[in-house]
Write a structure and sequence with these properties.
Number of strands: 8
Distance between the termini: 132 Å
Structural class: alpha+beta
Oligomer: single chain
Shape: elongated
Strand order of the largest sheet: 1-8-3-6
């Protein structure tokens, strides 16, 4: 009987997974041109959670303006000229807008990384529909609720690990861009200093040569 129960459980695991509390995450990296603004939209349900984390990984100043607007147009969060930020929102039904604004910069473009995490986005319906797949009496022998809870915990932790890895990659990209920028600036000013030293050395040699040269003409 236990074998039959396990077979039923694994055969219908894909259907059962629909009853998990859904958590979605996605990340994007885009180029924000100088003097422009980019906006994105996310459709949310009531009593869900939307978490937005962003980071400027390249560009002069490593800063950008950022704001989030609710479906009715209210500004929920506004960050002015920041390099990174994290915001969590308890949502209602509608489309949420979040924008990155680089209009204050007329020269430098920015490379922006951001990640969205959507919690409690499970589809509507009876979350206990999976129980119809099993004979009623066998539910007492094995607590599938505990198994589903464990699987959901593992899924949540894997999702969190993936999120942290994405953020670490963004930090690494920003640090690498800073190091490469510093390397280029050091090389540039080193060449400038070397050029100045060569020019000054040539001028000194020329002036010393003229100082000790005898310009008097001999008369015969």
């Amino acid at each position: 009987m236990g074998v039959m129960l396990c077979l039923l459980f694994f055969c219908h695991l894909a259907k059962v997974s629909l009853s998990f509390p859904q958590s979605f995450d996605s990340d994007f990296t885009f180029t924000l041109p100088a003097g422009q603004k980019e906006c994105f939209y996310q459709t949310m349900k009531k009593d869900a959670t939307l978490e937005i984390e962003y980071q400027v990984i390249d560009g002069a100043g490593l800063d950008v303006d950022f704001y989030v607007a609710s479906p009715n147009g209210n500004i929920l969060y506004f960050d002015q000229r920041k390099s990174d930020g994290v915001h969590s929102i308890e949502t209602e039904n509608g489309d949420y807008m979040f924008c990155f604004d680089n209009s204050f910069s007329s020269i430098s473009e920015k490379i922006v990384f951001f990640e969205l995490i959507l919690d409690n986005m499970e589809p509507e319906g009876d979350s206990d529909s999976w129980k119809d797949l099993l004979p009623g009496g066998e539910l007492l022998d094995m607590k599938l609720e505990d198994i589903l809870e464990s699987i959901n915990n593992v899924k949540g932790r894997l999702s969190k690990s993936n999120q942290i890895q994405g953020l670490l990659r963004a930090f690494e990209a920003r640090d690498r861009n800073l190091q490469e920028g510093n390397y280029d600036r050091v090389n540039f000013w080193s060449m400038v200093n070397l050029s100045v030293m060569l020019i000054v050395s040539c001028l000194q040699v020329y002036m010393l040569k003229n100082l000790f040269s005898d310009k008097r003409r001999s008369r015969t």
